[in-house]
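Long-time lurker. I teach an intro course on protein structure, and each term I like to show students one example going from raw sequence to a predicted 3D structure in token notation. This year I'd like something fresh instead of my usual example. Would anyone be willing to generate the tokens for the chain below so I can use it in lecture? Attribution to the forum is fine with me.
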Amino acid sequence: MQSPTIYEKFHESVIDFPRGLAVYYQGKKIRFKKLGKLVDRMADILVNRLDVKKGDVLLIAQPNIPEVLILFYAANKVGAICDFVHPFTPFNQIKSIINLTHAKYAFLFEQRIAKEVDRYREIADMVIVTRIEDFLPLGKKFIYHNFMNNAIRRKLGKWRGSFKGFKYLKDLKPTGKVPETVTGKASETTILLHSGSTTGDPKTICLSDDNINCVAIRACEFLACKPEEIRGGGMLTVLPSFHGFGLAITMHAPLINRFAAVLVPKFSAKETAKLMRKTKISCICGVPTMYESLLKCPEFTHNRNLKNLHVVFCGGDSLPTKLQTEFNETMKKNGSHCQMFEGYGLTEAVCVNIVNTYNHNKVGSIGYPMSGAEFRIVDDNGKELPRGEIGEIILKSPAIMNGYYNDEKATKEAVKDGWLYTGDLGYMDEDNFVFFKQRKKRVVKVSGVGVFPTEIERLVESVPGVEACCAIEIPDPRLQSAIKVFVVAKFFDEEGMRNAIMDTCRKYLIRWSVPKEIEFVNELPKTLLGKIDFKVLQKQEDEKRGVTR
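-- Reply from a regular --
Happy to contribute to a lecture. Here you go:
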């Protein structure tokens, strides 16, 4: 029996739960039956208006608006490949990705095109433009359409009914001939995501329907509840579609498990608090910086609707213990039984494959393997290490990618005998919980001793008054390398704060891990996903010191 495709799993929900809420977007409610019709309508447009065929690549660079879900399922229905890209990716990178994957069309967000409109005219014949207001409630749509986006429409050549520029998705009409669902091997590549790879080098990752479904079907496992218990609730969909966790867990998983995706195009703590008053949010998945913002927002921390939260997950970066503790205490004060748990995954295996849950959790660990996933810790020769010893984390799971796009060599280096070598270091205890230490490439050798920047960052962030920090490598004439820490702090005694950090580090770290230098800064650079970008700091520091790596 053939395994179902992504579209077929979604369609099961349309048939089984037609009147259930599927999408909540800025006050607009879309039921499963309606979403199914919108997907079929889009499939008609793709095949009969745009001549999209099985195997064609569609570049999709969208914020979290309904179009991203509609395009995702419609493309899958007709057998096209979705290449998900950050909606604000600059033109040069968009064009490079198009050339790499031979995309037939690029579905782009009009605000992005407007920033480099003259350059985008080079590829205007393959660009389909989406707008933020097309699924807004009537009042918001009127305001946005008539008062907020006029300058952008002029730039793109669409103004007051004239159409002298790019094709808009809303103007493409269906023919009424809904195409048949393309069936076949659900193991074929249907999703392309872009990542730093297990070695940190930019790569395009090839994923299949089986990969995505494997993770999404297990959502209730890590939510630690039965499917019927979450019907009527919603997942706060903040993480983007170009992120494996965002696509599989915060978009696809709720829809195939019959609860809603609450779409948030741009994260705001205050807006999240307002959303919780308008719709029932049962689950939130995000990164540490997002939760830090929520805990600083009184509208969130004193929200009576926190009682609706069932569980919250943090991933994408190491979860500071004090952040987890503060979040859980905030929930308790508001009469909520919700707790925050940490998980771990990487795009090469879609996203989360190991996670703490109500059923399996241990403080300090990144979690317990999900069903179907197996983890090992190995040395540099691939030999399994005893429990408690630090080595490379490897995993075997049905979620493991088909490979890196057009890069057989890198694929063979990452996947060996069915095991994905993550490039991350950690250890496993006797109860099968895994503890993350650091990316292999971030290990700093100080006088020959391996030092883990993440370990230093977690400790420094535990010092009262420290908001965030990042540890990097600097040259040292005696030790060859040493550690420098950049700190964002609420002080107002810089020397006192410096002494408190150094005292804490000397007390809890081996001497090679104790920072040689501390620099206080107003903010730290962030990646597109909101993580602290240590690479930028490292590069800036190297240039300042004249270091070549």
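Some talking points for your students: The domain at 202-441 is CATH 3.40.50.12780 (Rossmann fold). The first strand starts at residue 21 and ends at 25.
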